[in-house]
């Protein structure tokens, strides 16, 4: 237990220290360690009111939109008799795997004011104006919300599923209409859960980078993260300012997390327990097909359409809306396979992601267990600690990790080890969040009983806790695996000459080659990830079957 | 189980146990001893600290101070710095939620404690079968645990708790999730099992009948402290405080100034505000200027005519009577106070609303002062 | 250090050719002082110890260039020297600088050869003692202004230069900008793209056109709300698809890249000159494979390396080597009138902050 705590503290606090050191660095530029300290960098933030305002507008709009997507889909899928419920439920998580980066690339191809496919088609038939402008602030918020909506859905539907349906039935019995029940009973009861989702989604949006970069830059629209990106990449690099911006975001998110705790501790809704109920399903009559269309449309816009768009683009020399035989090519795929990065780095990425996911699941599993189940003093602090890496934009946090692991006594820097360490750090919040949800649903006495029976901690872990948590652990494994393969911000800075991974190469292609090649590489990566997940799924299923059939 | 028989079951001693969560005191200076082979019940309303005490004995809760000894061995003592881990205390426990592991079969659930103790092969299978037979679940061994009904899960939990022949078993409201009929059946079976195995058991419940029916001794707890301890009969007949009197069974409490007392014979008499005199017994309790006397509802009798030559006879007015099945509950106005009487038999046929109430003085117990 | 008299003569002579004998003479002195035997390998001279370099077996190249570009260079080198494997770390220019500085402050010297895309960065790195001085025998084929001062820290491995480009479907040839000042026409409002302030090339253009047209030039241009991008590939892709109508910082290399795909894009070389910016490559100090690094520098400076720089589609950089062959398309670098602040490096580098400020403000940051 002490090992895990120490590990978490080192992984998180060590880079944090260097990050704050940089934020307070007012000495000679690009000199480490800093020669003077001060708060001047934070004062400079006020020189960028537009950036701060843009960030606020986009983040708020995107959060609201994502919550709307999440809440409506969650309500439809947990509370109504919408057709194909199970399939839709599974499809709702696909956007998470598509990722905002690919989504932004695809939507940029679809909705750019001049060259966007949708606008090309619109112009051809209906006139000269563009139909949509995906590079506008609302367009950016739309794309961000599409991909974060999936996360909001998962969080909100979990809350809805854990709500005792009797509470809603009581309203119905007393003559409350379906809508009245939803607005007066369901909504207030799930409010803390929705608030939790809201704060989490807001934090993600605040730190999100790729959508604002891909879509905002053409429109001269900058948010804090893209501003940070430009400040670290211009010469001379303004690392201190970037670090100060990152640290400020950290403060904002920390405040929000605290606020959330405060709000939820004040009015506790004990009715929303960790226990699983069979939710009552409302018969919506023919309206259920409308609800089906609503959810299907969301899945279409956030998963099917982006992937189809990328494929359509990758098969053209220069992607346009109206395909022509002369424009058709397989060159981008051929080229993608000929790039070193795709061949060797892909394998590296997969291997590294598997190791990260395996260690990450064990580490965050133990961590969640300690936070929720142990009687360790200060475990509340540990919970905040585990959320730190989420609160600082990756692009800044990566610098903190670089400085930290550079001076670390063991020679990890420049090797796969440093990437592994970085991934374990940045995906800690993801793992803890996923596994905590499952741990919470597990009756405490199942473990205590093993304890009373005389089983040691490891024995119980092996025979009781881990098997019971298996579905949750598998889900966490997959999430961390995919997130690792898709990792960009930390990898770019920490890759060594002998430790190259795939995703930076994809973004690289976007910068140095073309959208079409990028689309091809992204699709190849998606196919490889999917294949790995399928193999993993089959493998674990067989393992599970063997475990069941064993006496 | 033979091993248990040959070794006398150990006693559980709890001494000055205190448990605090932050600023809240859950258990305050609780002490009791469950002798070897005895079933001791912690009885009290929810939140009285009984479950915390039980969990402290199990080692699932770390107390703030005090000492716990099992069979003379200290398992917890804050001054000596001893805190033996749960898994090394060698006890067994039945949980309120049963805690049946849903990913194992019934057999594996029951075998768990044996496997932990490195049992295996035919001996293990034997013991498991024996334990399952004990709770009449033998034919369910191969079932998946998640496919059992509540009552069956409860039995499996019980089998699991006894399978590895523990000498101490803790019960945390094991019957509270069962329906009334099953509960009264299981109550008897559990008591039988406990006697047969000769184990020491600590039992937690908020159900009075359960406590009275199953225990050798009962400890009544209130707000984290022990209110009274004794045999079920003592608790029932001689409640020490108004709380116990009220909680343990329906009792009428009457208060007034002490007008007479005889320390040798152990009698006392009080006069209420309404001027009614009640004679009672002190059971050695200290007599002060004022006192409260508890009279059980079943010890009161009603008659249309004044019984001759008796003390503790008062005229009352009948307010209403309620049919409760086995008994009839009658509410009467006694002075300005309402008293409740439970009696067996046909509904009263009293002409008017006036009647005479009688209580044998030896059934009128003086409560301890300043309860 | 060039002596003042010599330096004046160089400036006076203007043309690189005129300066050649003087520089050559100085170089031979320096070469001799280095005490390294010069050997010929393939068709170029090197002062590196080839046997040692091959024993080192590998070296690490830190570069700002794109992944396929770096990989291409290292593959080409590996073909000539199969026993030496090149590895690389790539990052955008400033990030590469920050990373390298941080590594060096932690006593880690991962880079054997390092290449920056901006003279200011290379000069800063030089000031911090980041280079290991090595005077290549190839230096004699380079004018002194294309070499570091003092010689041996870095050299101009290539030059990227910019003109104008326009989308032929959106802009008629007669309406297309011909001169730099044409970009100020209101018609290009919301229709022009440039690079972000992180681009060294953009910095040169800003500096040179300000020199030609005055300090207000870019202020006027800012009113048209130009859009800034990170790379030429993005700029030209957008131009090709009509997202913007003109590209104001049109790298010839980027133009060739989309032209190959049949994009409706035309390149214009304004008569008043093409701003040009160097890419600077040198041996890093305290690397673990110094001989391989030196050999790589010699190869880069040689006709072989320079040919690769000019013809690889991921590079298409012009060579400043005096005997460089024509670039793809038939023109030599010398055929263009290039605008580069070679002779006033100090003033140029000093104006970096002013540029950042003006450029960021122009792009809405």
Describe the protein in words.
The complex is a heterotrimer of chains A (551), B (371) and C (365). Chain A has helices at residues 2-23, 40-44, 49-79, 85-91, 94-111, 117-126, 137-161, 165-173, 178-207, 210-216, 224-233, 239-266, 287-314, 331-338, 340-373, 379-391, 394-407, 416-426, 428-440, 444-452, 457-485, 489-494, 503-512, 515-549. With 551 residues, chain A is mainly α. Mean pLDDT of chain A is 84; it is low at 267-277. In chain A, helix 5 packs across helix 13 (287-314) and helix 15 (340-373) packs across helix 19. Chain A has 2 domains: 1-35 and 330-551, MetI-like (MetI-like fold, Orthogonal Bundle), CATH 1.10.3720; 50-329, MetI-like (MetI-like fold, Orthogonal Bundle). Chain A is globular. Helix content of chain A is 75%, strand content 0%. In chain B, 25% of the residues lie in helices and 35% in strands. The longest helix of chain B has 18 residues, at 180-197. Chain B is built from 9 helices and 21 strands. A 6-stranded mixed beta sheet of chain B has the order 7-8-9-3-10-11, with helices on both faces. A 5-stranded antiparallel beta sheet of chain B has the order 2-1-4-5-6, covered by helices on one side. In chain B, helix 3 packs across helix 4, helix 3 packs parallel to helix 5 and helix 4 crosses helix 5. Chain C is an alpha/beta fold and 365 residues long. Chain C is 41% helix and 18% strand. Chain C has 14 helices and 12 strands. In chain C, helix 4 links the parallel strand 3 (58-63) and strand 4. Chain C is globular, with a radius of gyration of 21 Å. Residues 1-23 of chain C have low confidence and may be disordered. Chain A binds chain B through residues 375, 443, 445-446, 448-457, 459, 463-464, 467-468, and chain B through 58-60, 62, 86-93, 95-97, 99, 101-103, 112-113, 116-117, 160, 164, 170.
The strand count of chain C comes to 12
Q: Main interface pair?
A: A-C, 55 and 62 residues
The main pleated sheet of chain C reads as: 10 strands, mixed
Order of helices and strands of chain B: HEEEHEEEEHHHEHEHEEHHEEEEEEEEEE
What percentage of residues of chain B falls in helices of 4 or more residues? Answer: 10-25%
How many helical stretches of chain C?
A: 14
Using the CA coordinates, give the radius of gyration of chain B.
25 Å
Q: Oligomerization state of this entry? A: heterotrimer
Largest sheet of chain B: 6 strands, mixed
Number of strands of chain B: 21
